[in-house]
Amino acid sequence: MACYAALLHQPPASPSPCTSGRVGSCRVRPPPLLQRRAPPLSVRARISPRCSYAAAGESAGAGAGEQPAAALRRVLGTPGAHQAPACYDALSARLVERAGFRACFTSGFSISAARLGLPDVGLMSYGEMIDQGRLITEAVSIPVIGDADNGYGNCMNVKRTVKGFIKAGFAGIILEDQVSPKACGHTQGRKVVSREEAIMHIKAAVDARKESGSDIVIVARTDSRQALSLDEALWRARAFADAGADVLFIDALASREEMMAFCAVSPGVPKMANMLEGGGKTPILSPLELEEIGYKIIAYPLSLIGVSMRAMEDALVAIKGGRIPPPSSLPSFEEIKDTLGFNRYYEEEKRYVASPAQSSFGSGNYDCTSEASSSGDTKSRTEKSQEPIIDILPQLYDPGSAGGRGPSGGMWSRTLRLKITGRDGVQKIDARIPAGFLEGMTKVIPGLAGTNIMERLRNAPMDSDNPQNGQILLDFEDGRGDRIQVFIA
């Protein structure tokens, strides 16, 4: 504990107003580690696209064209201790962003619980974390710091992990020094790798970042406080900073004094606090208290998964008792749709609705200048633009020829009418084609899905609501809510 005592009682440094290493104090520039120059555009790593259906104005994240890591460094370079709740899927990440937070973490503990229904004891694989992470980063525009456990192996595995997290769109990556299989740092039986191996893992991560042309923020975590001692944890934190880590994190510190000792190490490097809710080893302090101690970013790993579990349990009790969850605990359907982006999706979808003039019915080897397209009929259509009509009379059959004689020949004198009405009540199309088209189809395909098409045409019921439409052949709603009707007149 000698190192711990010395750190607590050493006199504070007296930096000049322009050289303070404290990020966000005295209006000074951020420390060099946060001022990394962005790599040239030609060598920047590909990042995941961001979903565009979040409610307008809800994001406080990356600006247009800003790389995720640059957005995170911008956040870390601003004054204050920044709260960053931990998400576990795309929806929880969306809610974090919607609530106005400027960054978020992924929680390996919560992802293991939500994705596998299993404890955080090293069962999650690299591939599963990358897959879940990509869905999360695509759902939001705020920077996301990913939990990469211990890098999933040796230094070469660490390099692959860092490159994979970069491609998945993460702004930062947390790497710890536990042995495999790793587990939650606040549970029993923690073991860590040697000092030398832990440092080489961080150096490998820095090399992977350089090779990728990225600027991902490397958060170096040590679990040696519970596995070995506070002195060892402080030594490793300092060594990680020297190896190139951007943010330092000692998990499971047991007191405010230990937290103060940690923040005194490598003062130019931001520190991360982990407020494990519900009974962890670290004291739960307010953001203001943590800022005064010297922390820059604060994780809340279990809040979202914890309240979700309790809410689901309460809802299931209500349902089992013949009730539904009370309105106070359940958002309305409209609120759910708004959160998920339904309304913005509908607005964007309207940009790609094909007008009747663009319909494929008007293309191909057809003559659309039928007798129905007279000047009077054209004028009528113009006056009734809300009910566009497309008449298609192909010159494939001469009603006066011998081929028109036969039991189905009369079908050429009848008309099939296709009407499509959108879910908003707007008529999208009203097209008419000769019913005789189906005669040729039945010769090639006598039965379609076990149905005699010609027999069905003859026996179709009349449209009782609108007899002028003729007989109803089909009337249904498709998956998008559009009503599709086919009549024969």
UniProtKB/TrEMBL annotation:
Classification via Gene3D superfamilies: Phosphoenolpyruvate-binding domains
Bias-annotated ranges (Polar residues): 357-377
InterPro entries: ICL/PEPM, Pyrv/PenolPyrv_kinase-like_dom, Pyrv_kinase-like_dom_sf
Stretch forming the signal peptide: none
Molecular-function GO term, any one: catalytic activity
Record-linked SUPFAM superfamilies: Phosphoenolpyruvate/pyruvate domain
Name of the molecule in the record: Isocitrate lyase
Organism: Triticum aestivum (Wheat)
